[in-house]
Design brief:
The complex is a heterodimer of chains A (228) and B (319). Chain A is α+β, with helices and mostly antiparallel strands and 228 residues long. Chain A has two domains: 85 residues, Gyrase A, domain 2; 133 residues, Cyclophilin. Chain A has five helices and 13 strands. In chain A, a hairpin with a 2-residue loop joins strand 9 and strand 10. By secondary structure, chain B is of the alpha+beta class. Chain B folds into two domains: 173 residues, no CATH class; 131 residues, Cyclophilin-like (Cyclophilin). Classes of the chains: A alpha+beta (228), B alpha+beta (319). At the A-B interface, strand 1, strand 2, strand 3 and strand 4 of A face strand 15, strand 19 and helix 4 of B.
């Protein structure tokens, strides 16, 4: 449910969490994106970072430059006068994926868990358009939702210590792509040759909060010939 | 001006990284701040060698770092007392020195605190990534090739010779922070303190928590009385942005103080460390005890202004 008014939660003397709703939903996330973009444009003096997520926006500020009360005021103003017409539409990004085998070592397990074929897992996973609810966990990691109920899968009992960069994975009703090699507990069903995160690029992340993502299956040969 | 070879790492010790005050404005891309865990010590170190406050320094943990000067270099060591020595002679901290070409600076081990900062005149010549030279260990960028320093690494500096003219500077001894083994860390409740039982909140304030050996640059894990959440609410929350100093309590009831290597998380946060006490978090080491003290926003603002005015006064004395 979208709240009538935002809930403000302070993080000590240097951040305000602006909560807009109480659940994971595309429309609440859209509202977060609108508030994020309009506040970002305002370039409020003293605000050092903005972190949008599923249903809230975190504003980190320098308390020597602006007080929490003043900042809350400005956020409230922006929220009341928000005009979605001035917010650019999110972009849609196609992500090619090699599903299964050594690139997606958990595909068979996920299929067996749902008592369907691996081909059916691929079909369901790649026919849906996902929303980037937030970028977090590591640099450039997109939390994509929502995976259709038919593929909702609990996390692995034992997380892997090394998940290769480019792995496409699912956990519960979320899917994501590992932009750098990290430990991880999601089920890896495929791999993409697309670079998600490049610290030297501007912006460093291919995806931004609010973007839409579609996966499509490619063969190993297509992967080998793939060019950015 | 051309950068010159300045320092060679003979041994990196437990962990040595390049850090400045951190990377800000990229949280939307999942990019965490990283940066010096004791920003106070880093800022003073830089001022001692006539650098800008936010220049990159070496941050070294507990023991074992050995560095060799490849040219005469202006240098200052601040933060934890890891018993620095040059040729078996103690090396005075919190003041400027010239480390002569060929001399070796070694860190023997902690007598107080956890992390020392080594500031070099002219800074460290590496390209900033997203506006900062800080090393992001989890994502592998920044600093020197995105990694902790290894033996044989050579650091360049923008002409350290030109800075040798700086007069000797010393940070006033009465202002040098004391790093105890029993800490009082000031916090403000929230953002999710209401989700914990009254008993849980009392445990958090009244108990002492021991720092686990599993602590690192990502977080300080604590061992002590469990903090229980209210019974009718789930273990985790919908992931949201978080900051260094948030004290999160996962389902097992054991608190963790989050440090600056992550931008989001899905656990409830009972309290958040005030800005003025953030530098302490870099100096707490495994085995230490922590007591939390809840204060008001006004008190937190006052504490920060007091710390900043000290730095400001020192800065003015440097001119």
């Amino acid at each position: 449910m979208l709240y009538d008014k935002p809930i403000y939660r302070l993080m000590a003397d240097r951040a305000i969490l602006v909560e807009l709703g109480d659940e994971i939903s595309p429309s609440i996330n859209d509202r977060v994106r609108e508030l994020f973009i309009s506040l970002d444009k305002q370039e409020i003096a003293g605000v050092t970072d903005l972190i949008p997520s599923y249903r809230s926006l975190l504003l980190i500020y320098d308390p020597l430059q602006i007080s929490s009360a003043e900042l809350e005021n400005q956020v409230n103003n922006a929220h009341q006068h928000m005009d979605a017409a001035h917010i650019p539409s999110p972009k849609t990004v196609e992500i090619p994926v090699v599903y299964g085998d050594d690139k997606g070592p958990d595909l068979e397990w996920v299929a067996a868990y749902h008592k369907i074929s691996p081909q059916e897992v691929i079909r369901i996973h790649s026919q849906h358009t996902y929303q980037v609810y937030m970028i977090g966990f590591t640099s450039g990691f997109p939390y994509l939702g929502e995976v259709p109920e038919a593929l909702s899968t609990p996390r692995r009992a034992t997380p892997r210590t090394h998940v290769p960069k480019g792995s496409v994975a699912i956990a519960q009703r979320q899917t994501g792509i590992y932009p750098v090699q990290t430990p991880g507990g999601w089920h890896i069903i495929g791999w993409t040759p697309v670079t998600l995160f490049d610290p030297q690029a501007e912006p460093p992340s291919l995806l931004e909060m609010g973007d839409r993502v579609r996966f499509h299956a490619i063969t190993v040969k297509e992967m080998e010939n793939w060019q950015p | 001006m051309a950068a010159v070879e300045c320092i060679e790492i003979l041994s990196p010790g437990l962990q040595t990284t390049v850090q400045d005050l951190g990377r800000f404005g990229f949280g939307r891309y999942g990019v965490a701040p990283s940066g010096a865990l004791d920003p106070f010590a880093l800022r003073i170190g830089n001022l001692l060698v006539d650098n800008l406050e936010n220049q990159a320094c070496l941050e070294t943990t507990l023991l074992g770092l050995r560095i060799k000067a490849l040219t005469d270099v202006l240098i200052a060591v601040t933060g934890a007392n890891l018993q620095p020595q040059v040729d078996k002679r103690p090396f005075e901290m919190w003041c400027t020195h010239i480390l002569n070409k060929g001399e070796i600076l070694s860190f023997m081990g902690p007598s107080s605190g956890c992390r020392s900062y080594i500031a070099l005149g002219g800074g460290i010549d590496i390209p900033p990534v997203m506006g900062s030279k800080s090393t992001s260990l989890p994502s592998g960028f920044g600093g020197l090739e995105g990694k902790a320093l290894e033996a044989g690494a050579i650091l360049f500096s923008e002409s350290p010779q030109a800075k040798l003219l700086a007069t000797q500077r010393k940070f006033e001894p009465k202002w040098i922070p004391v790093y105890p083994n029993k800490w009082i860390v000031r916090v403000i409740w929230g953002p999710q303190d209401d989700d914990f039982t009254e008993q849980g909140r009392q445990s958090f304030l009244k108990s002492s928590y021991e720092v686990s050996s599993e602590s690192d640059r990502t977080g300080i894990r604590l061992v002590g009385p469990l903090i229980h959440r209210k019974t009718d609410i789930p273990e985790s929350i919908i992931s949201e942005g978080q900051i260094s100093g948030n004290i999160q309590v996962p389902g097992d009831g054991k608190p963790i103080i989050i440090l600056g290597e992550t931008v989001s998380g899905g656990y409830r946060k009972i309290a958040t460390v005030i800005s003025a006490d953030l530098p302490l978090l870099g100096q707490i080491r495994p085995g230490d005890e922590i007591h939390f003290k809840a204060i008001s926003l006004d008190e937190a603002n006052q504490a920060l202004r007091k710390m900043e005015s000290r730095i400001q006064r020192f800065k003015e004395s440097c001119i």
